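Figure 2 data, in text form.
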Amino acid sequence: MTMMACTRRLTLTAVLLGIAFVVPAQAEEAYDPWPGLVQDIFNSRPMNDGSTVIGIEMPYRAEDAAIVPVTLRSKLSPGDARRIRSITLVIDRNPAPMAAKFELGPDANVTEISTRVRVNNYTDVHAVAELSDGQLYVSKVYVKASGGCSAPAGKNIEEARNRLGQMRYRQFEREEAPASRVREAQIMIGHPNNSGLQMDQVTQLYIPAFFINQLKLTQDESPVLSMEGGISISEDPNLRFTYVSNGAKRFRAEAKDTDGHVFRNEWDVEKPGT
C-alpha cells in the first residue's frame, strides 16, 4: 500500500466518519488490523522479533493526539556487522496506517529519529526495520489517543500559507568529545500537513489532504536520511536525528508536497543558524 494509495481513500474515509456507526466495544477491541497491514504494506514478508534491533518510544497516554512524540532508535550492538537500511512507522488504526518510511544513508550511521505524529484511535504502533541482511524486524508500543487526524489545525489558513516551506536547521551539543563526528540535528518545515479529515470551521467542508510526502537530507551530496511521509505526520513536520559527519561543510534539505511544491535550503554545518 503506497502513501498515495492511502491518500486516495481519504475522501471516502471522511464521509464515513460522518456516519453514525456503532460497533460493540468488545468486537472493536478484538479486531487486530496488523496481519492485514503486513500483507498490504510488506507483501506478507516474514517479521522477526525486533526487541534487540529497533526500539520505539511513545507516551502510553498522549497529551495531544495531533502531536504525539515518537522516537525510533537502533538497538544493534556496536559489533553487529548489519546496518538498518530503512524504518517503516505504522500506526495500525489510523485511516492511512503507514505514517512514514525512513531510508537511512549507507554511510551516515543514523541511530535515532524523532518526530511527531497524529494518532486517531487507541492503537498499536509498529516500527519495522529492514536490515542489510534483507530481513524485517518489528517492535511495537500501545498508545491511548484519539481524534488526532481530524483535530483542527493549530494555525489559521493565512498564517500557514505565509510559513509554507520555510525551513530551519539546528544542531545540538552532544556529550561525546569535541573530536567526535557524531552529530545531532533537527529539521523543521512550515507546512499545514492537512490530513484530509479536518473540517473547515467556517464552510463545514473537509479540507483536502495536503502534506509533505518526500524529504531528503544530505551532507554535501552524501545521503543522510530521507522520508516518505503521509497524513499521520503532524502539522509543521519536525525531524530530529543523529548521524555521523563525513566532514562536509554544507547540510542540504529538499522537501516536496502533494501539490507539487518543492522546497530547498542549505546551511553551513559549523554555523547552522536558522
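Caption note: Residues 11-23 have pLDDT under 50 and may be disordered.
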